[in-house]
Design a protein that fits this description.
Blueprint (H helix, E strand, L loop, with lengths): L13 H36 L9 H4 L10 H7 L3 E3 L1 E3 L4 E10 L4 E4 L5 E6 L7 E2 L4 E6 L1 H19 L5 H20 L4 H10 L5 E5 L4 E6 L6 E2 L6 E4 L3 E9 L11 E6 L2 E18 L4 E9 L10 E7 L6 E5 L4 E2 L4 E6 L5 E5 L1 E5 L3 E6 L6 E3 L3 H17 L24
Antiparallel strand pairs: 1-23, 2-17, 3-12, 3-16, 4-11, 5-7, 5-10, 6-9, 7-8, 9-11, 12-15, 13-14, 13-16, 14-15, 17-22, 18-19, 19-20, 21-22
């Protein structure tokens, strides 16, 4: 019996043993090739970091820069590409911001009594209530008003006693009556109530005070039975026929914010409607943290549909530069890191070009640098052209990598790359 186990490779027949040896050799060669490739890649990356090799030849870098795109007329029509010419013109800068409706401070009034006393009843007794000019506010008992009534009635009796006397006596008595009436009027008693006191000849314990203005009660500081003092602000009333819209404008847009500038405002609570107004004031201070300044817009509020506290979006236009180079807004593509347009070259290819932009209107945008007058740019479907350009750059870069045989698509428009060659 042989001492070698027949189940081991060395106990196999000679033909089988040679096949096993060849497989082992092939595996060792494959492992050696993988190790060599890894080491070569690391060496190349280290040389690149040290500046010995130009990184732009590597596929990863190629994907960072868009490549020119070739589109046939049919492909351009199929994806909706149109073209426009770079032309000089005037673009008025449009500034858009948000604001909030507030009271017109010039139309807010405090209602304060001119007497001391006690409130016996309130006629305007909740915040938000509308009060018309001359409408009763409250009924008040005041020793000052009682004394003024007694002086008026006493003057009336004196005038009646001297009516048949000399002219000087009668004129003096009439002046006393007029003086007593004025005092009651100055204390807030209206002419009708003064006439009623004279007609009855009786002193009234409580008199009614009336509103000197019309508006909505925005603040109420009085309740029934309360003791009031002269000069105390019991109500604040706002006239809402005109309101203010206040918003913040960024520092770079302040040149466009001028007093008298026309403004268009829209409100989320009132969709489909626009309000026209004008900038009434630009505040003199700038917020150091937000780098914004407040502007105030006056808006007519017929129908009282605008309510303080509402949010709004408003926009206005500033002065533009004459003969500025402009392109359609749809021609400009902002990637987040830079701003691009695609220029049609003489050979028909669409070349991505970085530009700097300025003022913007509803349909045009100013180009500060990067383009020349008369050049032709892609005016629509810019995003699709950019996607094709990025795809071409990525595939072209991958073709330079070791072991890759892949070329960029010859023409775009379909969004699909050609398969690598076998």
């Amino acid at each position: 019996m042989s001492s070698v186990d027949e189940t081991s490779p060395f106990g196999a027949p000679p033909g089988r043993r040679s096949r096993i040896v060849r497989l082992a050799i092939y595996g060792a060669l494959l492992v050696a090739a993988i190790v060599a490739a890894v080491l070569a890649t690391r060496t190349r990356e280290q040389q690149t970091e040290g500046g010995a090799i130009d990184h732009s030849s590597h596929g990863a870098a190629a994907g960072d820069v868009e490549s020119a795109v070739t589109l046939s007329p049919g492909e351009a029509q199929r994806i909706g590409v149109t073209y426009a010419t770079v032309t000089p013109g005037l673009v008025e800068r449009e500034v858009r911001t948000v604001g909030q409706v507030t009271y017109d401070e010039t139309r807010v009034r405090a209602i304060s009594p001119k007497i001391d006393g006690w409130v016996e009843s309130l006629h305007v007794n909740y915040t938000g209530q509308f009060v018309a000019r001359g409408a009763p506010l409250m009924t008040v008992h005041s020793p000052m008003l009682v004394m003024a009534q007694e002086e008026l009635l006493l003057a009336k009796r004196l005038a009646a006693d001297v009516a048949g006397g000399t002219g000087d006596a009668a004129r003096g008595a009439d002046e006393l009556v007029a003086s007593a009436r004025r005092r009651l009027s100055f204390l807030g008693v209206d002419a009708e109530e003064i006439a009623a006191i004279e007609g009855t000849g009786q002193v009234r314990r409580a008199l009614t005070l009336r509103s000197p203005v019309s508006g909505f009660v925005v603040e109420k500081n009085v309740v029934e039975g309360q003791r009031i003092m002269a000069g105390e602000a019991l109500y604040r009333v706002a006239d809402l026929s005109v309101v203010w819209l206040e918003g913040a404008v960024f520092e770079q847009d302040l040149a466009a914010a001028r007093v008298g500038q026309a403004v268009t405002a829209t409100f989320e609570a009132l969709p489909g409607q626009e309000w026209k107004g004008r900038i009434a004031y630009v505040y003199p201070a700038l917020d150091a943290q937000t780098r914004t300044a407040r502007v105030r817009v006056e808006l007519s509020n017929s129908g009282l549909r605008l309510k303080p506290g509402m949010y709004a979006t408003f926009r206005f236009r500033g002065r533009g530069r004459p003969n500025a180079l402009t392109v359609p807004r749809s021609a400009v593509l902002a990637t987040g890191e830079r701003t691009l347009v695609f220029v049609r070259r003489g050979d028909g290819k669409l070349e991505p070009r970085e530009v700097a932009v300025g003022a913007t209107s509803e349909d045009r945008i100013e180009v500060l640098r990067g383009l020349a007058a008369g050049e032709t740019v892609v005016a629509s479907a810019t995003f699709l052209v950019d996607a094709e350009s990025n795809l071409g750059s990525a595939l072209g870069g991958m073709g330079n990598m070791p072991g890759m045989d892949m070329t960029a698509p010859v023409s775009g428009g379909t969004g699909a790359s050609r398969p690598p060659k076998e």
